[in-house]
MerR family DNA-binding transcriptional regulator (Nocardiopsis lambiniae), 246 residues
Amino acid sequence: MAWSTRQVAELAGTTLKAVRHYHEIGLLDVPERTANGYKRYGVPHLIRLVQIRRLSELGVPLSEIAAMEHGDREPDEAIRVLDAELEAKIDRLTRVREELADLLRHRAPAHTPPGFASVYGDLSERQRSLLAVYSTVLSEKSAEEFRELISEPDATEQEFEALPPDADDAVIADLAERLVPGTLRARERSPWSRDPTSDSPQGSRQAARAMADAAAELYNPAQLRVLKRLIELTAETAEGTGDEAR
């Protein structure tokens, strides 16, 4: 029995292009040609094509097929490696589906950082921009801590968010003082907030720089003055209570 290239491809459930590619990379022997120049494939070629298709269906790369058969890798080892890769892929896809479900449940946009869909709708555009930067430098654990901190904003924090850029000194000083208790409670409840970049995958220094640069660009002058005064006041309070060493 002999078949043309098209016929053997159809029998094996593959394509002409695939058969020609297998010839090019050495996975399939090129058959002898008839007197009129046409290639004629036999049963061994069909068997070989079926084997290649089966391995491809399992996800074995064509380069690995060659290595397995040349003795460069034991078949069992190759299968174990493939299984581990598929397990990792399944885990990733499962996580992505969970994130998509979370986005749909909270009607959050697709670009929302993972884990923040539940709070994204309550954030201002400035806060969303800050979150986009923070999500690139915070570790997964730190991102969870940050989400907890912003999930229950109080009236004073909302007042800070709405502070106009031309706020006068008295307003700035008053707001900074009223922010101190909430800041100290947050530090007590979440020690992480004292040094949020300590476990950053990007390195603490680079992460802190990115967060500071984002804040400097996205907050208006009055808000930056409030933050500066807030840092001074919380440091003074901590020093007065002996909390600075904790």
User: Anything to note?
Assistant: The chain has a mean pLDDT of 89.
